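Feature request, filed as a ticket because there's no other form

It would be nice if the structure record came with a short human-readable summary line next to the tokens. Right now we just get the raw output. Example of a typical job, pasted below so the devs can see what we mean:
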Amino acid sequence: MKKICTVLAFSLMMVFGFAASQASAADPVKINTCWMDEAPGFIMWYAKNKGWDKEAGLDVNMLLFSSGPAQMEALPSKQWQLGATSTAGYLIGAIRHNVYEVSTNISEGFMQGIYAKADHPLFKVKGHNPKFPNVYGSPETVKGMTILYTSQTTVHYMVGKWLDILGLKESDVKLVNMEQPSAIPAFEKGVGDAVALWAPFTYSAESRGWKLIANPSECDAVTTSMYVGDRAWCDKNPEVVAKFLRVHYRVVDVIRAGFTPELVKDYQKYMSDFCGIKMSDADAKMDLEKHPFWTYKETMAISDGSKGIPEAFQWQLNAAKFFTQMGRFNQAEYDSLSKSDSFTTKFLNLLK
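Raw output as currently delivered:
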């Protein structure tokens, strides 16, 4: 009898041990992810609220940062593994922190802008440079201006391109570094002559009657939002990265199917709960419409390197070259980026 009990106890231990190991194997993989207070974070926020990350075997933790440079400052301490950043954030990450560009998600060309009060003299001159007919300003009306911007971000790139179009340098104006949420009230109170913003802060500018001077699209400064990842972590967890991307494209398909009232309400809730930004129905719908996230097929098309440098990577190199000319990167750093494999489709390829 004692022998039977011992065998039974051992059998039960084996059964419970196997069950425990199976439960452990089924536990979702936790990923810390980085975001900014703008549209790209809605994708994963929406997925989490639907439980789609858990369905994919992931537990996505979303961390909010004020800018791309702030995200990259947090990477050496391993605060995050994947996340969305801008062109400037990627350049800093690729050159100095060894990140991958995992996928390119959307163009930001029409979602950023440089604004001034409508009565500013620069609006008397349009198309000073014939190659850029819709850009306002001239050397005489812009030189000496004080411009509020966020340093080493996509709006910095936009401001630099605008000045270059007018034949000016950064030294010809006064640049005041300021985080986006602070720039709006500061400019409203009379600080500065112009302010450089990204969405949704651009909507606040427009609602106040401020006038658009230029945006990246008008300045031939293509900027994108993209997913980046810690290289070492991604190389160790390629299937996890692929699962993350599958969740992303599942939500993209929902968004591309149409901007329903329910989707707009969800977007407002995301902006309010995660970003701390209140948006009207109209602004929320507009922000969604201006963010037609690329589908998987569209992403692969701009990432194709079979005939040379992929279009999506060329956009980043163009920005890197400009920042190098401005002295933000040195030539060795630019050369290193241009020859690196930081732009990759190996994780996107796993979705095929």
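Something like this underneath would help us a lot:
The longest strand covers residues 99-107.
Confidence is low (pLDDT under 50) at residues 1-16, 18-25.
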